[in-house]
């Protein structure tokens, strides 16, 4: 059983990058009165407590969402700010919504959601806050391959692995290619870490070659602590909505100041 638990990293700079883009896309999709499907392959527990011992141990949230709010990285009308404010109104001032609860803020009764989480404790915690969605305790990419193309066909798939399985870097370009052929109208978003050893680079090159029309957003930041291997965050988005490139550029400019 994989051991990764996102509670140690929730609200960090990578989450800020990923979730700002995700919330922007969900706001764009739900601005139109057409139903959609939201799918997520690695959902986690959905809700995190930034005052908990896990977040306190790493300090990553303090350098991420806490600093971003203090420095006005998210305007009051930014979609991620809306989702964060709702989570904190429901769960307290130290709550941080993972991507499932960000999606919950935007999704409407006519929309469908499917969330996969394999880790038993994380899946159990997810079930307590994700009653709006169909939950799957299985490999998330298997779920996505089985459900695509979904009904409704309009929608968004978020692929957000922990990359504990090193083979993910090799297999994801092929998996995404299969999904894109099955669901050619779907927005398919892949998050990946930028690492000091550049092990993500061959995957990114393969995706640039196979998906030349995709949006690639990559930001850099200082390591969370000395010797920490992650120094940036990347998102690849197939069929990016109009205007997402501008939001990605805005985020890049903010991260460049760090």
Overall description:
By secondary structure, the protein is α/β, with parallel strands linked by helices. The protein has a single domain, classed as Vaccinia Virus protein VP39 (Rossmann fold). Helix content is 43%, strand content 18%. It contains ten helices and nine strands. The protein has helices spanning 13-30, 53-58, 60-70, 79-91, 99-106, 120-129, 140-147, 168-182, 201-210, 244-255, and strands spanning 37-40, 47-49, 95-97, 112-116, 134-136, 155-159, 187-195, 215-220, 230-238. A seven-stranded mixed beta sheet has the order 5-4-1-6-7-9-8, with helices on both faces. Helix 8 links the parallel strand 6 (155-159) and strand 7. Helix 8 (168-182) runs parallel beside helix 9 (201-210). The protein is globular and about 40 Å long. The N and C termini lie far apart (36 Å). The mean pLDDT is 95.
Overall pLDDT, averaged?
Answer: 95
Shape: globular
CATH homologous superfamily designation: Vaccinia Virus protein VP39
The low-pLDDT segments are none
Number of domains: 1
Return the CATH topology.
Answer: Rossmann fold
Instruction: Sketch the major β-sheet.
Output: 7 strands, mixed
Structural class: alpha/beta
Distance between the termini: 36 Å
Number of strand segments: 9
Tell me the strand order in the biggest sheet: 5-4-1-6-7-9-8
Please identify the top-level CATH class.
Alpha Beta
Evaluate the radius of gyration.
Answer: 17 Å
- Proportion of beta-strand residues: 15-25%
Assign the CATH architecture: 3-Layer(aba) Sandwich
Please work out how many helical segments DSSP would assign.
Answer: 10
- Binned, the helix content reads 40-55%
Element order, helices and strands? HEEHHHEHEHEHEHEHEEH
């Amino acid at each position: 059983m994989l051991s990764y638990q996102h509670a140690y990293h929730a609200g960090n700079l990578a989450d800020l990058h990923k979730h700002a883009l995700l919330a922007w896309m969900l706001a764009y999709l739900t601005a139109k009165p057409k139903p959609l499907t939201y799918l997520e392959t690695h959902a986690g527990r959905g809700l995190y407590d930034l005052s908990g011992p896990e977040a306190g141990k790493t300090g990553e949230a303090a350098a991420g969402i806490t600093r971003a709010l203090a420095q006005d990285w998210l305007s009051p009308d930014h979609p991620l700010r809306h989702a964060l404010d709702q989570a904190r109104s429901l769960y307290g001032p130290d709550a941080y919504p993972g991507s499932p609860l960000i999606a919950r803020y935007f999704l409407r009764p006519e929309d469908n959601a499917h969330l996969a989480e394999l880790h038993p404790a994380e899946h159990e915690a997810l079930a307590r806050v994700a009653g709006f969605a169909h939950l799957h305790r299985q490999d998330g990419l298997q779920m996505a391959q089985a459900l695509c193309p979904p009904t409704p066909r309009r929608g968004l798939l978020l692929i957000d692995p922990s990359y504990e399985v090193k083979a993910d870097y090799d297999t994801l370009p092929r998996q995404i290619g299969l999904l894109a052929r099955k669901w050619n109208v779907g927005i398919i978003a892949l998050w990946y870490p930028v690492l000091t050893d550049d092990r993500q680079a061959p995957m990114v090159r393969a995706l640039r070659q196979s998906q030349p029309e995709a949006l690639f957003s990559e930001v850099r930041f200082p390591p969370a602590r000395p010797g920490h291997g992650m120094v940036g965050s990347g998102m690849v988005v197939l069929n990016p909505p109009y205007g997402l490139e501008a939001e990605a550029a805005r985020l890049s400019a903010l991260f460049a100041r760090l």
